[in-house]
């Protein structure tokens, strides 16, 4: 994927994750029953540090509402997503995608107090910025959260029929670099990450 394409994709998703709620906008509502599973999945992703190849992230600053409505217009069509995973996992991804899109038609609150991962750090709300304001936003962010990674934002998980597998879109953005991708998890005694694919990085 070209650097230009990756930057465009990351900007579009960052628009969903961070540049979401203008001041005075409506707050997200708490999700319906089942949020315990959502938060257990977020914990598994945070524990696995799936996009932290260099293992340098201390803790993640977590965006306190979900991304919502992953945009098909920037390449997140079902066929593209399925083919990013190794063939033996593609069926699980395809089975979970319809539920992922159904559960993400709107934003929901992420109860950061319910996260148990040692990698879960402070929380911030979605932030409204213009391109001209972003440099100042990141300066203030790193002043406020020195040594912390993130922000990191999630969609609600989409589940396969039967609920054994879950798929989550993750936006992990840290100043001048970021990663956007999907994480496939499997439920055993605990949720565990099977595979993660990065679709864009900047």
Shape designation: globular
Helix content: 25-40%
**Structural class computed from helices and strand pairing:** alpha/beta
Q: What percentage of the residues does DSSP assign to strands (E)? A: 15-25%
Order of helices and strands: HHEHHEHEEEEE
Largest sheet: 7 strands, mixed
Q: Helix segment count?
A: 5
Which consecutive residue ranges, at least 5 long each, have pLDDT under 50? 1-9, 16-33
Average pLDDT number? 78
Q: State the total count of DSSP E strands.
A: 7
Give the termini distance in whole angstroms.
11 Å
Taken together, the total number of domains comes to 1
User: Which radius of gyration do the C-alpha atoms yield?
Assistant: 16 Å
What does this structure look like?
The chain has one domain (3-21, 28-201). It has 5 helices and 7 strands, in the order ααβααβαβββββ. The protein is globular. Mean pLDDT is 78; it is low at 1-9 and 16-33. The protein is 32% helix and 24% strand. A hairpin with a 2-residue loop joins strand 5 and strand 6 (177-187). It is an alpha/beta fold.
Compile the SSE list and pairings.
Layout: H1 3-17, H2 35-48, E1 60-63, H3 78-84, H4 87-103, E2 120-124, H5 134-144, E3 149-154, E4 158-159, E5 165-174, E6 177-187, E7 191-201
Parallel strand pairs: 1-2, 1-3
Antiparallel strand pairs: 3-5, 4-5, 5-6, 6-7
